[in-house]
Specification:
- The structure holds 2 protein chains of 2 kinds.
- By secondary structure, chain A is α+β, with helices and mostly antiparallel strands.
- In chain B, the strands form 2 sheets. Chain B has a 3-stranded antiparallel β-sheet with strand order 1-6-5, with helices on one face. A 3-stranded antiparallel β-sheet of chain B has the order 2-3-4.
- The relative contact order of chain B is 0.15.
Chain lengths: 157, 145
Amino acid sequence: MIIGKINRRGGLGDQVSIVYFIFLFIIIGLGLTWSTYAFFGGGYDVREVQAKWLGNEIQNCLTSKIVDLSNKEDFFIKCNLNENVLREKEFVVRICEGSCYTNKAEPLFFINSNYQLCGFTEVTSKNAIRCSEKNFELNDKKLHLIVGSKINPRRVA
Amino acid sequence: MEINKIKGINNKGEGYLEENVIYIILFILFLMSGMAFLYKYQNNVYFWEQYYSYTIAKSVNNAQVGDRVELNMDRAVELSRKEGIADYKQIVSFDNVKKEVSVSLQKGKKTSYSFLRNYDINDVLIEEDINGYFLKFSVGAGGIK
């Protein structure tokens, strides 16, 4: 009678230990998966580099060529940029006299309008916009240029 | 008496081993699946697809009309072979309408990135020479805004 009780307790012990064993594997598996994704899954973030490159290109274009900012076609032809790509890939370009953040007047030139997000540098989301800002003089006017990029190379099946 | 005791000990030992066979099998299965998972990710194909698509797009952005661009693709070709792509000449493609470059180092998948210039990319090929594998393409004026 006593022996029987002991045996049943032993069986319960086996079940507990296999559950513990599987639980341990799940924990280790999750740890392995997380660490692999953390190490390899970061991807290749080019948003900031791309925004800086585009900012430099636009500044060089405006200072080296006579560009009519009120004529968008003239801007895209002379600066050798593709309008469709910039619009569809949600690049932000805004050129203002003074500051784009404080100036109430219309910007001299813009592509896509959500430039305000460039002011929130604390947003670190993977899909957040990364920006580059420049202040330079052109024809005795102080210009403020904001360029933003939110697109990284994307994978398609 | 002593022999019986020893037999008893032996029997207990065998039982212990049998009970633990399931644990050993589970452990081996876990180890194998973990190794397979790590093996799959050690190539880090997605990262390299991103790297090459951005690098190629950057080269296009910095090129002038009439330029012939050459880029080393050794790592890409090596990875595509590991991933079972037989024809390395197909791993890079350009879409002149979308102004996009695509790199595929894994079957059925590709990573794309846009270049910002109004260019058309022509005469695309990947060639092997004594220095390795090189992607070569010509930059022409684009017809679509």
